[in-house]
Amino acid sequence: MSNYFAAVLAALSIGGACCAADAPAAARYIQAPGTGALNFSFVQAGAESQGSFGKFATELAWNAANPTAGTLEVIVQVGSLDTQDKDRDEALRGAELFATATHPTAQYVANAFAKRPDGGLEAVGKLTLRGVTRDLSLPLAIKTTASGVELSGEVAIRRLDFGVGQGEWKSTEWVGDDVKLRYRVPLVPAR
Question: pTM of the full predicted structure?
């Protein structure tokens, strides 16, 4: 078993103990292996650029009858980013941007959900990226599927709030501060 998957399984085991204590009536779901999309977009030199993270793990505790008692944990292997440009990917992994050598993962943890004015849900939690932790409410659409549930939504964050941009990369002249995240993740019941 690779170190990545061993770390994810260990984190999910710890998260599962937490989730079971906080919301005993909630069912536990985990990301189906090899599925899901976690995409991002940002403005570079006046044009929108796209990318994705290829390795991430998601765990949800949720019950449709009591939706605000849910919990959510997502662990992203930041070095798995792909923008279809090798040189740009290397720069993004570098010390002045994501610094993946010292901060290989990003983590989102929410211990409660809240109802949105539009009738949807949002996870109320914290995102840790590049060693910086900040509050982040994550809009979620949760739908039941034949094999479990599916999470989807999108949110905007500011890269500079997390220190993603040191030295010349602090300037927003060539790379914008806003980054949009879009996610669609199928989950299956945890065994």
Answer: 0.84
Which residues of 4-131 form beta strands (DSSP E)? 27-31, 37-44, 47-53, 56-62, 71-77, 81-82, 105-115, 121-129
**Under DSSP, is residue 4 helix (H, G, I), strand (E, B) or coil?**
helix
Query: Looking at 145-174, which runs of residues are DSSP E strands?
Result: 149-158
Tell me the two tokens of residue 15.
């998260």
User: 37 vs 47, 52, 60, 191, CA distance in Å?
Assistant: 22, 7, 16, 23
The proportion of the chain whose per-residue pLDDT surpasses 90, expressed as a percent, equals: 73
From the list 185, 150, 155, 175, the residue with the least C-alpha distance to 74 is 185
pLDDT per residue as tens digits for the range 29-50: 999 888 999 999 999 888 999 9
